[in-house]
């Protein structure tokens, strides 16, 4: 049997959550589970009700996205973990494409490109992410982290046992917990493989955290970069060859 992939959807007062859930349920990959972690929502919870028989629904006190993701990971039964924000959408073949690649290449982590969509589900910037060469891109990914974060968190699929080494998401970063984890993954020696396909629709809208909390996000990013980039630069100097 193919390995199980757990898709974790953190949810907090988000009207778009039915679109996210349906896209997770519509995956062509045959062995998935969908966990929706309600992070203490006070609104929009009724929108989850029609899906209760098809998902695992867990409610917890509000603590932020990192705590919701970690809670979902703790309750997951899959060997691989994927994360889907409640206002974004997986394309139907998303998990299939990444698992085919990861199993064929023994990849512990993979990420992909993505399309940017608006509040009405219309794509307005295709291929929004940084593109890497289709072959021999492992060192290129590492080097890119010295200047920018090239990874959209909802494109990630990660083998669950990687987190036994790196630890899970850091709740101390309310908005950039994923960025912190990517550095820890890289510095632990786990290669992050890029797949040159757009596999999700990432939503840009006025109510998103990315739009509302820019100053806090920039502050957290600066903290992470100041700490990790010198360490990563030294790591690259000591690891001149990537296979």
TrEMBL record:
UniProt KW keywords: Transferase
The superkingdom of the source organism is Bacteria
Q: Which InterPro entries is this protein grouped with?
A: Glyco_trans_2-like, Nucleotide-diphossugar_trans
Q: Which is one GO molecular function term here?
A: hexosyltransferase activity
Which Pfam families does the entry mention?
Answer: Glycos_transf_2 (PF00535)
Give the Glycosyltransferase 2-like domain ranges. 6-164
Per the record, the similarity remark reads: Belongs to the glycosyltransferase 2 family.
- The name on file for this protein is Glycosyl transferase family 2
Organism name: Terribacillus aidingensis
């Amino acid at each position: 049997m193919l390995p199980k992939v757990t898709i974790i959807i953190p949810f907090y007062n988000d009207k778009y959550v039915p679109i996210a859930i349906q896209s997770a349920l519509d995956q062509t990959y045959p062995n998935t589970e969908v966990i929706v972690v309600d992070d203490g929502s006070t609104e929009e919870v009724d929108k989850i009700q029609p899906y209760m028989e098809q998902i695992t629904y867990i409610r917890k006190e509000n603590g932020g996205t990192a705590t919701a993701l970690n809670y979902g990971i703790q309750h997951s039964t899959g060997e691989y973990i994927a994360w889907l924000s409640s206002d974004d959408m997986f394309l139907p073949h998303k998990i299939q494409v990444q698992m085919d690649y990861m199993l064929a290449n023994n990849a512990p982590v993979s990420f992909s490109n993505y399309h940017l969509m608006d509040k009405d589900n219309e794509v307005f910037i295709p291929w929004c992410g940084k593109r890497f060469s289709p072959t021999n891109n492992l060192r290129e990914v590492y080097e890119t982290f010295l200047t920018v974060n090239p990874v959209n968190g909802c494109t990630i699929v990660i083998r669950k046992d990687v987190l036994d080494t790196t630890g899970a998401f850091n709740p101390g970063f309310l908005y950039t917990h994923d960025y912190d984890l990517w550095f820890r993954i890289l510095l632990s020696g786990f290669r992050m493989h890029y797949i040159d396909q757009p596999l999700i629709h990432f939503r840009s809208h006025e109510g998103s955290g990315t739009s509302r909390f820019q100053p806090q996000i920039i502050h957290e990013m600066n903290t992470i970069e100041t700490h990790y980039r010198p360490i990563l630069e030294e790591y690259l100097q000591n690891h001149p060859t990537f296979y």
